[in-house]
Amino acid sequence: MRIYLAAPLFSNAEREYNLRVSRMLSELGHSVFLPQRECTGTKQEIFRCCLSGIDEAELVVAVLDGAACDDGTAFEVGYAYAKGKRILGLRTDFRNVGEHGGAVNLMLSEACEGIARDEDSLAAMIGGLEDAEEAQS
Questions:
Q1: String of DSSP letters for 25-47
Q2: The pTM is what?
Q3: Do the beta carbons of residue 2 and residue 28 sit within 8 Å?
Q4: 137 CB-near residues (< 8 Å, 6+ apart)
Q5: DSSP string spanning 55-113?
Q6: Are 92 and 65 spatial neighbours (Cβ–Cβ below 8 Å)?
Q7: CA–CA separation, 19 vs 59, rounded Å?
Q8: Distances (CA, A) of 19 to 6, 7, 14, 44, 129
Q9: Are 88 and 114 in contact (CB under 8 A)?
């Protein structure tokens, strides 16, 4: 499966975590588009590269950690949702935030088919999506 990994990438810790998740997904046999690795150039070139990556993806995995989701990740989720892409969230942050104690903003949680709490749960969710697709074929 072609997966676009939407995640914050502004600190060393974020970039290292993104590489870890990307590696795990690749080891499961998926092709992973990771913007921090794939997109370079001017701001406009990076923007177009990211949109192209989402356009070509079969699934978007969005890292939703933090008190509020990274704004770039939120945009990528919205864009993917508007394009009819399947979206899974990954939230390892144990803090509950939001009006009703939910972990993620309503607009993000509703755009996602599911939100995994760790990498193993994410792998299981992706496996479930693949199983469902195979059953439909």
A1: HHHTT-EEE-HHHH--SSHHHHH
A2: 0.92
A3: no
A4: none
A5: HH-SEEEEE--SSS--HHHHHHHHHHHHTT-EEEEE-------STTS-SS-HHHHHHSS
A6: yes
A7: 17
A8: 12, 10, 9, 24, 23
A9: yes
Domains (range + CATH), the chain: 2-136 (3.40.50.450)
Q: Give the total residue count for the chain.
A: 137
Q: Which two tokens stand for residue 38?
A: 């794939």
Tens digits of per-residue pLDDT, 69-127? 999 999 999 999 999 999 999 999 887 654 444 568 899 999 999 999 999 999 999 99
| Token reading at 68 | 């509020």
